[in-house]
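Notes to self after the call with IL:
- keep both proteins in one doc
- input above output, always
- annotate only the second one for now

Protein 1:
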Amino acid sequence: MKVIIPDAQSRKAFDIINILERVHGYDLLLFAPPGTNRLLRAIYGQKVHPLSMENYGSFREDLLSATNEDSDNEYIWMTVSEDPTLYFYELMEKEPHQPIRYLLPDRTMFELARKKEKFQAFCEANGLPVPASFSADDLKELELDFRPVIAKKRIGAGSVGMKYVEKPDQLSLLDDINKDHYLFQEKIVSARKIHGIFCVAREGEIISWHGHERLRTFPEKGGVTVFSRSQYDRECKEIASRLIREMDWSGFAMVEFLHDDRTGEWKIIELNPRLWGSVMLSEFCGARLLSNYVKLLTDEKPESGDELTDRYIRWVFPFEVISLLKGSISPGEFLNRRGLNTCYINFTYSSILRALLFQAYFIFNGRSIARFFKKLLP
């Protein structure tokens, strides 16, 4: 049995590969966009197959060419990112007898999770707590009865492209955007940080999970998480369980929450239907989501986990280094490792040589640099 890892060039996949291979001893089948394979082979010490994302036909040809090299083997699909997973859905719908096992929700639910407006409507229809939403016409009424608003891209994009309207005179910021491409939500006023419930589920039941509290992002407003800690908030977990049950969800899910200080309840911000950048924390705090996913597909009993709270994860390079240089964090805070309770994205679970090679690859990779500057721009 081999585990298929698409997007092996990504920072997220780097940690997934190290955990599955170096900690749990699984055999892996690695894929990356054409043109990146030779460099990645030097980093991982094994062949990295090309996986084109130009269209379904090229994706199918690349994936099956690699899996057919060893026709006696079986495979497990790992949902690293959304685009290859959408093509994978199509492959399994058209040719369901491939020797590839997977845990995924019904495709309509996967697509619903990606489309923020439809996800909002689903939660509202099922009585799940979410921020109030506004239509484009409602925005004019906010001039008379103002409430802070966030404009989010309707499909994917994470924090990229978000617009924040925190004062009435900032409503003009929404004049120049294509309102058909955005969901407008009430901005939750909260003294607490964003919480997340991270899980692997099967047919609507959460099998293994942990939570985290976001402590620091880069950039500070709407950026990626660069520092967080593990928590096991039972209230958030209960809401996430209701959502997973209503969607009959299978596979990985990350449900994010904000506490609404006005109403006193946790509200669902979004559900990410694939693995996340801080996935390493699930291993470090004992939840072992990656290996439990594989165990579910190989008829082994998942591990219950240790529920270790106050385990920290940091993304030091490049984001916290930049924050240090800008004065956003102090040298003392930058150097505070909190004993041995901290893991480090792209370093923990890797050899030093592999980690350094991957950092060099990231610095000089045009694709990665473009994504980095996307996060910096509003």
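Protein 2 (the one to annotate):
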Amino acid sequence: MNTRNLEITVGAFVVLAVLAMVMLSLKVSNLASYGAAGNVYEIQAQFENIGGLKVRSPVSAGGVRVGKVADISYNNKQFTAVVTMQLEGAYQFPLDTSASILTAGLLGEQYVGLEPGGDEEYLVQGGEIELTQSALVLEQVIGQFLFSKAQETQGE
């Protein structure tokens, strides 16, 4: 009888561990959406370079997740990347809000950071953020640094 209780306990522990792994994988992949999915509005922003930004990447303001990247496309007329973001309806941002593509940590995932402005009118469904700052691409920064050092050594 004692071994039966032990087997039931081990089985319950294995089931809980599997459920925890599923929840963790959904959270890490941004597939789990916690919150009201129906109360959202979409806005767009154009960037010269989005780096490694992906669909479902977080959109945050002041360190708080306020939405996610819904779509990424390319504007053939202005030669820019168009990022469509879904923001939760509970969060309102002024018309002069700026958007930047930031990196979580040195080599972490990229996300869109919003910096609210001071305008009295707010972004609404279909609105566009005019002030944007593209992603900082680490390879380009290293390349520029090495090029400048090579120019310094040739000038001597």
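Annotation: Residues 37 and 96 are 26 Å apart (CA to CA). The longest helix spans residues 2-28.
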